[in-house]
Design brief:
By secondary structure, this protein is an alpha+beta fold. It contains 13 helices and twelve strands. 30% of the residues lie in helices and 13% in strands. Strands 1-3-2-12-11-10-9 form a seven-stranded antiparallel sheet, with helices on both faces.
């Protein structure tokens, strides 16, 4: 696999436009495919894939562009991309499967499953608080002793267990990285099994997903399309950005939650792909994201099989807080592990929920229309934020416009 550089190169032998592959599209969704195609019209646009289900049935499956910075390897049906916080939606779905089985209960303190967490004033923090980002455990900056510790979920869980909750407990404050480490510890303690194995047993295998990993095996890494650019702009490290941003009081919660020391050095490396970071290093195909969210948009059912019971699904999608998130500065309308399924424009889908990620990828379910959507890409846009960028919001708006309520 070619190692990407900080800026694309364009060899003279590369084609001038990006290839587009479209196995099928339901007629009503032609405008959505056209909008997707426009995102990858040039070779420098990188590559990506889009998949949509409606009422549990696939209606869009399309991919375009390139896997590599040299624009030599076209995106393929099974190409995956690391999708950062999109991972949280997959992890949340796993949690709800365990709730359905009676293995977990959102009203229980985290320490009920993982006793070590109960120290230093955290004995009564519940799983509900963690899933809705109100546990006061959002800080990741300064928790790891070395950057490499960020790749070891058990080391990070031990470090977090030894800390006090912040004064923001009870207020929504995006647990950008800690969400995954803490939930992995809860899941492993409650099940007695490794996180990747539980994900496979509860989500990947039952749904027959073709690309859904949080800890990608070495024999699947050839399918990953690395990102073209560094996470931080202009070649500046995340450490440097954090150092200066934290001098402004209003940015401190964001710096503490979003900018751990040294994580950017691992982007596009097997060490990152193989780690267990259930908030940030999931590797997915678009069709796997859309298929995972399909039963969440269709009453819990897909292809005649019940994936989630109505009462579990109803609670999963219920808004837990409407307050502005202290870290993100937005009203995320946090559900239990998911946020509002934002789309472009003023007409927001009222009950849509899912999770978007840095770099543009994301997935969501909308129970009102029966739509579920998954989008992955290896090209960061100029407007990239911790919760995706304008591309996903625009695609979501077009998807909804294709449906008659």
């Amino acid at each position: 696999m070619t190692t990407p550089s900080s800026a694309p190169t364009t060899p003279s032998s590369a084609p001038t436009t990006s290839p587009v592959t479209e196995p099928f599209t339901a007629a009503a969704f032609r405008p959505l495919v056209d909008a997707f195609r426009d995102l990858f019209s040039r070779r420098k646009d990188g590559g990506g894939a889009l998949a949509v289900y409606r009422h549990g049935e696939p209606v869009v499956d399309v991919w375009a562009g390139y896997q590599d910075v040299e624009a030599r390897t076209p995106w393929r049906a099974d190409t995956m991309a690391m999708s950062y916080s999109t991972s949280k939606g997959v992890t949340a779905t796993l949690v709800h499967r365990l709730i359905q089985r009676g293995v977990l209960d959102v009203e229980q303190p985290i320490a009920h499953y993982w006793p070590a967490f109960g120290q230093r004033g955290k004995d009564d923090i519940t799983l509900r608080e963690l899933l809705s980002h109100q546990a006061g455990m959002h800080r990741i900056r300064g928790v790891a002793d070395t950057p490499g510790d960020l790749l070891d979920h058990r080391v990070m869980a031990k470090q977090l267990a030894a800390r006090r909750p912040s004064s923001l407990r009870g207020r929504p404050a995006y647990h950008a990285m800690t969400f995954g480490y803490l939930l992995a510890a809860v899941i492993e303690a409650a099940t007695g099994r490794d996180f990747p194995a539980v994900l496979a047993e509860e989500v990947t295998t039952p749904l027959g997903l073709d690309g859904c990993f949080i800890s990608t095996p070495a024999d699947q890494q050839h399918r990953i399309a690395p990102f073209y650019q560094r996470l931080a702009p202009l070649g500046i490290s995340m450490d440097t950005i954090g150092h200066y941003a934290k001098t402004l009081r209003r940015f401190r919660p964001a710096v503490n939650a979003l900018l751990p020391h040294g994580l950017d050095q691992f982007a596009n490396t097997p060490a990152m792909w193989e780690a267990v970071i259930p908030a940030a290093n999931g590797v997915f195909t678009a069709r796997s994201l859309a298929r995972m969210y399909a039963p969440l948009a269709a009453g819990g059912w897909i292809e005649g099989q019940q994936f989630l019971q109505p009462e579990v699904l109803g609670e999963a999608g219920r808004v837990q807080t409407r307050s502005r998130d202290v870290v993100l500065g937005l009203r995320m309308r946090w559900r239990l592990g998911y946020h509002q399924g934002f789309v472009a424009g003023s007409d927001q889908p009222r009950r849509a929920f899912g999770h978007y990620g840095l770099g543009g990828s994301g997935g969501w379910a909308d129970p009102d229309t029966g739509l579920s959507l998954g989008f992955v890409t290896n090209r960061l846009s100029a407007a990239t934020t911790p919760v995706a960028d304008a591309r996903l919001a625009k695609l979501g708006a077009v998807a909804h416009s294709c449906v008659h309520y």
